[in-house]
Amino acid sequence: MGTVHARSLDPLPMHGPELGVHADDIDTPEIEQDSKQEVLENKDVVVQRVHIDGLGRTKEDLLTYEIADVFQAKNLIDVMKKSHEARQKLLRLGIFRKVEVVIDTSQGVDALPNGLDVTFEVTELRRMTGSYNTMVGNNEGSMVLGLKLPNLLGRAEKLTFQFSYGTKETSYGLSFFKPQPGHFERNVSVNLYKVTGQFPWSSLRETDRGISTELTFPLWKTNQTLKWEGVWRELGCLARTASFAVREESGHSLKSSLSHAMVIDTRNSSILPRKGGLLKIHQELAGYTGGDASFLKEDFELQLNRTLFWDSVLSASLWGGLLLPIGDKPTCIADRFYLGGPTSIRGFSMYSMGPQSEGDYLGGEAYWAGGLHVYTPLPFRPGRGGFGDLFRTHFFLNAGNLCNLNYGEGPQAHLKKLAECIRWSYGVGIVLRLGNIARLELNYCIPMGVQSGDRICDGVQFGAGIRFL
Amino acid sequence: MSLAAEAFVSQMAAAEPWPENATLYQPLKEDQILLSDCASSLAVQTYLRMCGLPVQVACRANAEYMSPSGKVPFVHVGNQVVSELGPIVQFTKAKGHSLSDGLDDVQRAEMKAYMELVNNMLLTAELYIQWCDDATASEISRPRYSSPYSWPLNHILAYQKQWEVRRKMNAIGWGGKTLEQVCRIRSAFATSSAQFFFQPTELDALVFGHLFTILTTRLTSTELAERIKSYSNLLSFCRRIEQSYFEDKILSVSLSLFIPSLIPSL
């Protein structure tokens, strides 16, 4: 946990595609159309044959889609470019360990003088790969065993199983992923999981057993995801001393929800981007397809980045969400939004803001949060061009609010409620990028607008996560 | 409950008087509650009435999961949550309310032994009838137990509960018993303990809770109730307690799942 602001127990990380290459941060050099290369460029060639060597269980029809473009090439530069693209496409399927391209003149009886043969030499991944690692966190140690069957049926399907055995909790997840041949972005995945989470800020323990099916496809510039999820949720108190409000939420419930997510991401990197923007809209309708929980949940995330002078970057983000109960049943503590902590409004303790009872935070039905950052390289730029580039200093200003709305009142009253008692904070810190998936932050924060009941973290605060305000 | 926790609770409890808004939580009385839970709940209510401590009864579908020990009933007093009769007796004692002060050490030890016996025999027998007798389990226990939940969770939870109870029964060697044997055990027990009721104590509350519930609950077989009815001393005991502590007829309201026609026959 620690990365999502609305409580949701994502299954162990196994979201569909595993791209072989993270090209996010590589500025692809434009292929220079130099006059020196005229000779090659002007020479018309024909790609006569494309070979793929080293295929075992992979079905050929899957690959024809990926390499079809190579036949369109009209000159040598084009052939190289198209072959390179085809290689990237093949690697992206996640079924090959290695892909090498050899371009040669055509041989044989029917060879044209300007004919070329392109050969892809591929090495398939093993039928089954395993992994194990240990994790420590949240006063708990765990061992994670993973099993992956890539290219299960020969058309880039993937079956993943993860099992985590911890000192306190056991979790598992089984996931099947299938892309449409030729359109890797259009894919279907089915997940089966059990996840247990402990939320000390709410004195709550949650065990989710669920099944979900997901359909992902690109549409214009966006990426759309449609999902159905059925979860059996078991809530319990973490300690005897849990407040009665949390105790009242204990027990079993069944959530069946349909959700839709839309993402537009034009950033050059998901962690520490220099340019581009992100818009994420997520909506969830629960109760329509059965189950005990019925609500409509909407939330969005917006981020804009712009490079300023001296490699510094200005980044602005805005989050917001609304949870609307349907029927007369109040919303469940597991569905509500939480705010605060080193990944959202810095200077406050993790999810320790807003409605609470006897020190246990109950979450809210509406929230917004905004952040303004200036990222700069480290002062004097030590380790420039290498290790030092993983670090940034940043100055930040965060603000936000989390509350419950009375839906009998009009939108005017809602806006007024969200605008009063705003929590905000400012400070300075160092950011470390971990690969292209996570980041660590060490900040000095000054929280402001603290309301009674909020827990603050005045001074130095450490944060780790994959999603940051 | 661990010793330290128990000591802590009693220390905390002693500090405050019994509040007016004390609440007893039990499963939904119309659709959900089962014989054993109903008996335990009635026992606690009877005990608190004997002590003269006011308590409101609240019905919650998730009462079992709200309880710190996973068993119903439990009481919410001030900011304390205490479940089951034994700890509740301790808790009220710490607040200065006790029914067993007049007893000498031997009597008190006997009473404790009998209470253990009631829990071991009567309660176990009730659980056996509810979950191990196939007809009762499929016609009454499973549908009632799972009534607040939607499909398919209702089936999962009911079978999970049944499996849990059956495993426990097997562990204590009741797994192979027949309904007939169980009935004989409990009626034999009931007669032996009946001689103890000469002054109201927590034991009386416990026995009353169980007997009254068995007498007035509709089950697939009436054999059990019939056996208890054949002991006139048990019937008069039940009637005496009912008249002394439930004169205001709250009982017949709170136990609406029972067959009223049985009550006049007491």
From TrEMBL, chain A:
<dbReference type="GO" id="GO:0045040">
    <property type="term" value="P:protein insertion into mitochondrial outer membrane"/>
</dbReference>
<dbReference type="InterPro" id="IPR039910">
    <property type="entry name" value="D15-like"/>
</dbReference>
<dbReference type="GO" id="GO:0033108">
    <property type="term" value="P:mitochondrial respiratory chain complex assembly"/>
</dbReference>
<dbReference type="GO" id="GO:0005741">
    <property type="term" value="C:mitochondrial outer membrane"/>
</dbReference>
<keyword id="KW-1134">Transmembrane beta strand</keyword>
<feature type="region of interest" description="Disordered">
    <location>
        <begin position="1"/>
        <end position="21"/>
    </location>
</feature>
<keyword id="KW-1000">Mitochondrion outer membrane</keyword>
<dbReference type="InterPro" id="IPR000184">
    <property type="entry name" value="Bac_surfAg_D15"/>
</dbReference>
<dbReference type="InterPro" id="IPR034746">
    <property type="entry name" value="POTRA"/>
</dbReference>
<keyword id="KW-0496">Mitochondrion</keyword>
<protein>
    <submittedName>
        <fullName>SAMM50 sorting and assembly machinery component</fullName>
    </submittedName>
</protein>
<keyword id="KW-0812">Transmembrane</keyword>
<feature type="domain" description="POTRA">
    <location>
        <begin position="45"/>
        <end position="125"/>
    </location>
</feature>
<comment type="similarity">
    <text>Belongs to the SAM50/omp85 family.</text>
</comment>
<keyword id="KW-0472">Membrane</keyword>
<dbReference type="Pfam" id="PF01103">
    <property type="entry name" value="Omp85"/>
</dbReference>
Automatic annotation (TrEMBL), chain B:
<dbReference type="GO" id="GO:0015031">
    <property type="term" value="P:protein transport"/>
</dbReference>
<dbReference type="InterPro" id="IPR033468">
    <property type="entry name" value="Metaxin_GST"/>
</dbReference>
<protein>
    <submittedName>
        <fullName>Metaxin 2</fullName>
    </submittedName>
</protein>
<dbReference type="GO" id="GO:0007005">
    <property type="term" value="P:mitochondrion organization"/>
</dbReference>
<keyword id="KW-0813">Transport</keyword>
<dbReference type="InterPro" id="IPR050931">
    <property type="entry name" value="Mito_Protein_Transport_Metaxin"/>
</dbReference>
<dbReference type="Pfam" id="PF10568">
    <property type="entry name" value="Tom37"/>
</dbReference>
<dbReference type="InterPro" id="IPR019564">
    <property type="entry name" value="Sam37/metaxin_N"/>
</dbReference>
<feature type="domain" description="Metaxin glutathione S-transferase">
    <location>
        <begin position="194"/>
        <end position="241"/>
    </location>
</feature>
<keyword id="KW-0496">Mitochondrion</keyword>
<dbReference type="Pfam" id="PF17171">
    <property type="entry name" value="GST_C_6"/>
</dbReference>
<keyword id="KW-1000">Mitochondrion outer membrane</keyword>
<dbReference type="GO" id="GO:0001401">
    <property type="term" value="C:SAM complex"/>
</dbReference>
<keyword id="KW-0653">Protein transport</keyword>
<feature type="domain" description="Mitochondrial outer membrane transport complex Sam37/metaxin N-terminal">
    <location>
        <begin position="41"/>
        <end position="162"/>
    </location>
</feature>
<keyword id="KW-0472">Membrane</keyword>
